[in-house]
Amino acid sequence: MFHLIFALPSLYVLTRFIWPLPWTPGVKVALAVLLLVASQYHLWSRLSSGSVFSPEFPRALVLLFNWAFGAILLLALMQIALDLAGLMALLLRGGGATPDSVRYAAASAAMLLSALGVYQATRVPPLKDVEIAIPGLPPQFDGYKLLQLTDLHISRLFPKAWTQALVERSNALGVDLIVVTGDLIDGSFDARRADVEPLRGLRARDGVWVIPGNHEYFFGYETWMSHYASMGMRVLANDHTVLTRDGGALVLAGVTDLSVPGTRYPAPDLAAALAGAPSDVPIVLLDHQPRHAAQAAARGVALQLSGHTHGGMILGLDRLVARSNGGFVSGRYTLGAMTLYVNNGTALWPGFALRLGRPAELTRITLRGKPPQVSHREQPATASRPRAHASIAS
After folding, report:
1. What residues form the membrane-spanning segments (predicted)?
2. pTM to 2 decimals?
3. pLDDT tens digits for 23-51?
4. Which among 330, 48, 78 has a CA at the least distance from the CA of 187?
5. Are 144 and 226 within one domain?
């Protein structure tokens, strides 16, 4: 059923776009075969690695599949729009067939937009600066800079060279702290070990901290989390640490992913993550998925950093992605006294690498003790404030 669903756009393009064109039957059959092959990209991925999340083809072929898959989807949407416009014209004034020149223009636009979308998805992302006010932030942490990386999806599409470029750009920012909010990989340990190796070089004054995303559980959770730790990244899985600076303190907590129920691994547990943390200290929470942000706000978290949504990837599609993530999809939201920041992602799943209007982010967040002079989208909700194990002295 999964693969049939992804074949539907190509079938629509075949019947409503290709077949009406004045081409020879041989050309139409050849294009039909190419469309169906491209539409089954996820099936070929499954056959190559056993998982739709880890295509093990040469990078050029993964890029080509994503471009073709995106072009088919965009052309299907354009053809639907043309058919609706034709139907309206028919009902209003007798109408007529869509000119071939319009079809050719739609196909050209779909291919160009898909190429742009793949480029936007696969480049090392540009820097995005964000200021976030933290209630009760100690003055020692005013101006504290952290870098959020998320949804790296290191894979054949985002290989060692891409990871190395990301690390170099990240280290050049000179931030105080680096946090990685899940989905670092797509692939088994043996397949991805070399590709993730550059992450060992990430550097920040207060260290590099990581939580699992849902994809860590697809490819050997224990192996990957242990490997992250061996690379110098400190894991926060239902745990916290206390960052200190000249007598001021900030709690950094992290939870496991919402996809855990049904597995033998610990479910996300914010109470456990905050157990033993000092009271009256602002809490920064790392949670891969933003869906339960209201619960974090009710626990008194000051700032939650999430990813998972990839920002919705495409304008319009982001509204559907928001509906399955508690209404959160991209950017800043206010829930009572808590700020939720949903990162568009540093990369994204190689099974649908297309970004149009929702760019990837290399996100540098500056903490402030008063509201920043920047306007962001906000989503109101309610929250209250409670209590907030190792500590890091700066």
Report:
1. 20-39, 60-82
2. 0.91
3. 999 999 999 999 999 999 999 999 999 88
4. 48
5. yes
